[in-house]
Amino acid sequence: MILLSNIQDGAELVPEGESVEKTLSIIELIGSGGTAGMIIIAILFVLLFVALYIYFERIFAIKAASKIDANFMNQIKDHVSHGKIDSAQLLCAQVNSPVSRLINKGITRIGKPLADINTAIENAGRLEVYELEKNVSVLATISGVAPMIGFLGTVIGMILSIFEIANSGGQIDIKLLADGLYTAMTTTVGGLIVGIVAYMAYNHLVVKTDKVIYQMEANSLEFLDHLNEPI
User: Fold this and answer.
1) Where does the MotA/TolQ/ExbB proton channel domain lie (predicted)?
2) 24 touches 186 (CB < 8 A)
3) How far apart are CA 204 and CA 8, in angstroms?
């Protein structure tokens, strides 16, 4: 048996008993979560934007900090060996990288005990590391907070569903019950997605920062070894 529906509007024939597939877009899914769900999803979107902004800002800064001429240290050692301290400082100023700033700090201490030079370089290195890691801790915070905010939405959604069941008087409104469940599920998924993205971004930045720190340490040791060489 074939049912005719809305023939005047040109609707297609739908076989009796055949279910019509219902689709749900992301926007509709978020809207179905009610006011509480949309507020929590909005907060998660803000956290996601902040996480992505910090990640790309830091990744470009770290990439710029890691760029250094392979011949830089050879030129520095050559200038220092010939007593051209001003030329060495000028070269450091032209390169403008964490490594060059550490070496420049050491150059300004030439003539003092090697331990004092090493201490000056270490102190300057701490400042450079602080600059490299600026705002990275925020990513770690977002990676932990976002899932918790999502779970908060889950709890709110379940409370709304239980409230509807308790006040239904035996007549449960499926739509209101579904709104609570939508809030629970969408906020959980949103929180986990934001948390995963922030966690991956944080770990990637940590790896990149560690490479720059290793580069700084290696060049600083090379500079100190050169100063310790017998003339």
Assistant:
1) 96-217
2) no
3) 60
Provide the residue ranges of all domains of the chain, joining segments of one domain with +: 35-228
* Burial zone of 158 (CB within 10 Å; 0-12 exposed, 13-18 middle, 19+ buried): middle
Q: How far apart are CA 102 and CA 95, in angstroms?
A: 12
**Residue with tokens 């340490």, as numbered in its chain:** 217
User: Nearest-CA neighbor of 209 among 110, 105, 61?
Assistant: 61
pLDDT digits (tens, 9 = 90+) for 31-64: 555 566 778 888 999 999 999 999 999 999 998 8
How many C-beta atoms lie closer than 10 Å to residue 39's C-beta?
Answer: 15
71 burial level (CB within 10 Å; 0-12, 13-18, 19+): exposed
**What gap in Å lies between CA 194 and CA 26, rounded to an integer?**
16
Residue 171 banded pLDDT, cuts 50, 70, 90: low
Q: How far apart are CA 168 and CA 3, in angstroms?
A: 35
Per the CB < 8 A criterion, the answer to whether 185 and 37 are in contact is no
The C-alpha atoms of residue 51 and residue 69 are separated, in whole angstroms, by 32
How deeply is 157 buried, as exposed, middle or buried, from its count of CB atoms within 10 A (0-12, 13-18, 19+)? buried
Predicted TM-score (pTM) of the model is 0.75
Nearest CA-CA partner of 52 in 142, 132, 151, 147 = 142
Question: Is the pLDDT higher at 32 or at 169?
Answer: 169
Distance of CA 222 to the CA centre of its chain: 33
